[in-house]
Amino acid sequence: MMAKKAVLIGALDTKGQEFSFVRNILQGAGIETLVMDTGVLGTPVFTPDISSDEVAVAGGTTVALLREEQDRGKAIAAMTSGVAKLVARLVKEDAVAVLFGMGGSAGTTVSASAMQAAPVGIPKLLVSTVASGNTRPYVGEKDVMMMYSVIDIAGLNSLSIRILRNAAYALIGMVQGLQAEAPIAVGTKPMLGMTMFGVTTPCCTQVRESLEAKGYEVLVFHATGTGGRAMEDLIRSGFIQGVLDITTTELADDLVGGIFTAGPTRMDAAGERGIPQIVSVGALDMVNFGPSETVPPQFKDRTFYQHNPTTTLMRTTVEENRELGKRLAQKLNNNAAQTVVIFPHGGVSLLDMDGKPFAGVAERMALFEGLKSELSPEIFLIETDGAINDPAVAERIATEFLTLFNK
Hints:
Helices cover 41% and strands 18% of the residues. It is α/β, with parallel strands linked by helices. A six-stranded parallel β-sheet has the order 7-6-8-9-13-14, with helices on both faces. A five-stranded parallel β-sheet has the order 2-1-3-4-5, with helices on both faces. The chain has a three-stranded antiparallel β-sheet with strand order 10-12-11.
């Protein structure tokens, strides 16, 4: 098994001087490096540990062919695929101490794909010209840190030296910190995943505290699309052993077109892994949009609640709730033996209660009817009179989870 190294990923033909600068700082601090070249235009400024042709071959082609075709999009796609495969292999060999990349939009795309191939927990730092904009395509569901380069990464000058030096020091700190810390006890506590929203926080907090007191470790995911996808990713990776999917609101955004959709594969992972899950209908009374002026015009006559200046909530309709119930059931039927559903007839969020903006008996009944019409008879369906944030409902969720998990 090779020693863990700082893996540097980027185009050494156009950014070689900058990568050499960072590499030298790391090596001066006693950190071993492994440089992976992704450049296809010319000769690297210095000799890498993994050549661009090795990366291209891993991506299903060769540098010579990419140069001959002169198709920039195809070249980026090939190098993106190649670095992801090579980094995944290095991770499997336990050879990665930290991942570092830098570049413009193309270099950021390639480096980010490598970081997506590494599990959460391995430090990842990306210096990028696009880090001050929408970073979601690069960060995804991983713990990728992005540093804005301020100026283009095009040579060393008094400003770029300062920025790259800061990045190198950050890498050094992360590596040395991990080397110095006491080993984290792995596997001593069952790790659970829970979904939460502001409007389901009272319930989720009580459930979390109850389970933590019983010796469980609870990871709470904010159900904003990215949060749901992150939980699904960790389930598939085997980190999470049980799920408390209390806040399934992302399904509403996926159905109606809100900004917090987690995509069509949300709620698939637990079934694929066959792990125990308690599921409820938290915040299915709402669809999320940005500032009020961003709400699509076709919804102008709907019921809204301004959660804050940047978040506008829209009440789901009777028809939408019936469809949401059906979709939820269809998802859960894939893991029937390991699933319990809890339906709170008193309300599905802090806004869906008597006297609150989204109070809706008809909508809740439609949600329940849709759920029940498609739910497998093998799934234990528990109905409560209380709202989702009632202490008795939270206690029931925790109790049922313990029973299911300990079977």
